[in-house]
Amino acid sequence: MNLRGKQKRFLRSKAQRFRSKFSVGKNGLTEAWVSQLDAALNNYELIKINLQQNTDVTTQEVKAYIEDHTDIQVVQIIGHVLVLFKESDDEDKRVISAQVKEI
């Protein structure tokens, strides 16, 4: 699903109250980390991740890696925090994506 501007604004407003569920540390980006991230997005559809101070990667590198290796979309980047969205594979957990489609 390609997101339009209104849909991204909606997702940003929903994610404002969230806490980060994942972080990128000194180990950087690995396939195992991406698969765990993908599994979490199948449950939640919208999450925040943050980059720890000891990481060697930048937010742009994380964004590029995630978008190149998965179908996860980066909705927003603020400082060291990224907001990620992916429609759940489980139809019962598609609450946020159903709201996004109505916009």
UniProtKB/TrEMBL annotation:
Residues 1-97 form the CRM domain. This is RNA binding protein. Keywords: RNA-binding. One of its GO terms (molecular function) is RNA binding. It comes from the Bacteria. PANTHER family: RNA-BINDING PROTEIN YHBY.
